[in-house]
Amino acid sequence: MDIPRIFNITESAHRIHNPITPEKLAILGAALRVASGASVLDLGSGSGEMLCTWARDHGVVGVGVDMSRLFTEQAKRRAEELGVANQVKFIHANAAGYVSDEKVSVAACVGATWIAGGVAGTIELLARSLRPGGIILIGEPYWRQLPPTEDIAKGCQAHSISDFLMLPELLASFGHLGYDVVEMVLADQDGWDRYEAAKWFTMRRWLEANPDDDFAKEVRAQLTSEPERYAAYTREYVGWGVFALMPRC
Ligand code: SAH
After folding, report:
1. Distance from residue 18's CA to the centre of ligand 1 (Å)
2. Which is the CATH superfamily of the domain at 5-247?
3. Are 115 and 86 in contact (CB under 8 A)?
4. CB 88 within 8 A of CB 64
5. pTM (predicted TM-score)
6. For position 121, what pLDDT does the model report?
7. Residue 157 — left, alpha, or beta (φ > 0 → left; ψ -120 to 50 → alpha)?
8. Which residue CA neighbors atom 5 of ligand 1 most closely?
9. C-alpha to C-alpha distance for 140 and 166, rounded to whole angstroms
């Protein structure tokens, strides 16, 4: 069981697999005012940077679940490196349907809401692990600018314009699901560059090291086309943020 190999190649050197930067991840951790010892569940935890740094900086404990074997290994190594291996645990598994045994203070899915069929399904899934008064975190794209055509949406690697909402509509949609938005940290274009441009260097190095690999053709094609595609579409049209939600009282 693993994610498609292309991601394990292009994002093998990423600590954060999203356009949020280490600085903004720290801002988010502080914004949530979590107490030392608070528990966090992270579905699609990637290389574990959020859990590991929050464990170090705020004393949280928690569990991350991710389907990438490579990212999960990296997360475990990061926990050792930051001296928090006794606070956080990383599980290599499909997070679809994952509910924690004990209810948590923060239940997160940052940039992997397809695991439960989209934002609404993921909020429902996370809510099953959440203790009363807890916070749900959702990381999700939105349109910075509405694409004028479906082709432009496809250039952004969306299936269609209807895949994402504009920011005000996305915020309103959380309300329609019965949640207050209590905090948010938004990515910016520099953050997008850190996520996307970092892949290019990784691809280039991978190609040099693996010229005869079955995947070399695909990686070469991506490295050739991605900078221009990204600059024309994703960088201009796609916003991204982490939204903190609490059930309306
Ligand atoms: N939250 C992390 C990773 C986001 S990228 C961060 O911000 O860095 C999306 C992650 O979802 C990847 O790590 C990928 O391996 C993971 N993933 C994809 N499908 C999954 C599934 N069904 N179950 C668990 N993890 C999944």
Report:
1. 10
2. Vaccinia Virus protein VP39 (3.40.50.150)
3. no
4. yes
5. 0.97
6. 98
7. left
8. 17
9. 11
- Give average pLDDT by consecutive 10-residue segment, the chain, 249 residues: 92 97 98 96 98 98 98 98 98 98 98 98 98 98 98 98 98 98 98 98 98 96 98 98 97
The residue whose CB lies within 8 Å of the most ligand 1 atoms, and thus the one to mutate among 11, 15, 115, is 115
Residues constituting the chain: 249
Query: For residue 111, how far is its CA from the centre of ligand 1 (angstroms)?
Result: 7
CA dihedral 223, 227, 232, 234 (to 10 degrees): 80
Shortest-distance atom of ligand 1 to CA 65: 24
**For residue 211, which amino acid is it?**
P
Q: Which residues line ligand 1 (CB under 6 A)?
A: 3, 16-18, 44-46, 49, 65-68, 71, 94-96, 110-112, 115
- Domain ranges in the chain are 5-247
Residue 68: what residue type? S
For residue 17, give the 3-state DSSP assignment. Answer: coil
What gap in Å lies between CA 53 and CA 60, rounded to an integer?
A: 9
- With tokens 């996305």, the residue in question is 170
